[in-house]
Specification:
The complex is a heterodimer of chains A (about 80) and B (about 350). By secondary structure, chain A is of the alpha+beta class. Chain A is built from two helices and five strands, in the order βαβαβββ. A five-stranded mixed β-sheet of chain A has the order 2-1-5-3-4. Chain A is globular, with a radius of gyration of 12 Å. With about 350 residues, chain B is α/β, with parallel strands linked by helices. An eight-stranded mixed β-sheet of chain B has the order 3-2-1-4-5-6-7-8, with helices on both faces. In chain B, strands 9-13-12-10-11 form a five-stranded parallel β-sheet. In chain B, α7 crosses α11. Classes of the chains: A alpha+beta (about 80), B alpha/beta (about 350).
Chain lengths: ~80, ~350
């Protein structure tokens, strides 16, 4: 499925990019999260689809804009 | 709460705004706001809430001013180095506006004091710099029914939102899990552009004033994500997750206190450079440098074993498992990965050097 991905904070730092378009073998948020969990190891993150926070069981659609949001600690 | 003539003059630019006016300014004067943390975010929040005439402002911070804070913590001067931040902040803020009542708590926010403290305020501004405190602020606000203004930063990026406002989403609705210690670095570990907490803190001050005045649309149900490098801001829409609200309601805040006590009392599993210096004089240590051999500075006097992270799995026999082991790298990230690996291999008594060796002098 073609997805437009946006990375933030430490995720962008780790992947050395802020956005990319990828064809990923995933159809749900849960699958997307496990796909990225391998790359991102211990970095926790939430997922927003088309600027809306998404739940684990939500379905992805072709060309969705997907944001991977880690929490920030700093103050 | 009536305004004096002095106050009418001081706040005259507010009084001209029909969204504020005399009644709005009186509301600000009657308001109580608690600011958690007088750091990068807390400083601009405190300055603008004080200037705006918020009647009672609480400041809680156990930390002391360091010279490396002054790059962004704009309340403090070089002379304040070594002073408690809450006390130093009050001194500076009183000079700005002596009409404000400041309640100063030069102590750590814990599960033991959070609820009683929050109960005395209309709303809380979270300017803390660690996840233990952030989740404590969330849970104590949910339990006391207080809205809070969230702000958090990472290098050039910031997040801000209004949480727990009129049955709106909470911080746990956005991030249900408390991140593992060390999973997300703080400003001391990865750096931060000095102006960034200023920008995010001022958004927090803006949201605070909007809530107190009852004007505009509060940033509830939305997370704003700001990127200083591109100058762009995105909105993520959030929804309340009743399960996560229940989690916050069900948490025994005293457990938060225990966690903090543990972190302070028991054998520390992370130290900074200054603590390392002290430790070196006190007990024999096995030091492991997981950087590549070309990375500088090399500190010969430490007599550290150099085992680059990638080689570590094959070179475990070079380590003595009976010794207390301090693992370090350049900034404290790879050493954490190394420690996880060593733990899995059964090593104990492992200590991470947070912030890395890069600042060794």
């Amino acid at each position: 499925m073609i997805l437009k991905l946006n990375y933030f904070g430490q995720i962008a730092q780790m992947l050395h990019k802020e956005e990319e378009v990828l064809d990923l073998p995933v159809t749900t948020i849960r699958e997307l999260k496990s796909y990225y969990a391998e790359k991102l190891q211990t970095i926790p993150f939430s997922v927003a689809v088309n600027q809306q926070l998404a739940g684990e069981t939500d379905q992805l659609n072709e060309n969705d804009e997907v944001a991977l949001l880690p929490p920030f600690a700093g103050g | 709460m009536m305004l004096s003539d002095d106050e009418k003059y001081r706040y005259s630019r507010h009084l001209l705004l029909h969204q504020v006016g005399e009644s709005g300014q009186e509301r600000l004067k009657a308001a109580n706001v608690l600011v958690v943390g007088a750091g990068g975010l807390g400083c601009p929040v405190l300055l603008y809430l004080s200037a705006a005439g918020v009647g009672t402002i609480g400041i809680i911070d156990f930390d002391t001013v360091e010279i490396s804070n002054l790059q962004r913590q704009i309340l403090f001067t070089t002379e304040d180095v070594g002073k408690n931040k809450a006390l130093a902040a009050k001194e500076r803020l009183q000079a700005l506006n002596d009409q404000i009542r400041y309640e100063v708590y030069p102590e750590r926010l814990t599960g033991l004091n959070a609820k009683e403290l929050f109960g005395q305020y209309d709303l809380i501004v979270d300017g803390s710099d660690n996840f233990t405190t952030r989740y404590l602020v969330n849970d104590a606000c949910v339990q006391t029914g207080k809205p809070f203004i969230h702000g958090a930063i990472f290098t050039f990026e910031g997040q801000f939102a209004v949480f727990n406002y009129q049955n709106g989403p909470t911080y746990r609705c956005l991030f249900p899990e408390i991140p593992d210690q060390g999973a997300i670095p703080n400003c001391a570990e990865v750096g931060v552009l000095g102006v960034l907490p200023g920008i995010i803190g001022m958004h927090q001050a803006n949201e605070t004033l909007k809530l107190l005045l009852g004007v505009g649309k509060p940033l509830s149900g939305k997370l704003m994500v700001f990127d200083a490098l591109s100058g762009t801001q995105r909105t993520i829409h959030l929804q309340r997750n009743e399960e996560q609200v229940k989690v916050a309601l069900g948490i025994d805040l005293k457990q938060h206190a225990d966690e903090l006590n543990c972190a302070q009392g028991k054998e520390k599993d992370e130290i900074d450079i200054e603590e390392l210096r002290v430790l070196l004089t006190r007990e024999p240590l096995q030091l492991v440098d997981v950087r590549e051999p070309w990375e500088q500075p090399r500190i010969e006097s430490l007599q550290a074993l150099t085992i680059p992270l990638d080689d570590l799995p094959d070179m475990l026999d070079r380590l003595d498992p009976s010794k207390k082991t301090v693992v370090f790298c350049q900034h404290g990230g790879r050493s954490l990965v190394a420690i996880e690996l060593l733990k899995q291999e059964g090593f104990k008594n492992l200590v991470n050097l947070t912030g890395g060796i890069v600042n060794w002098k």
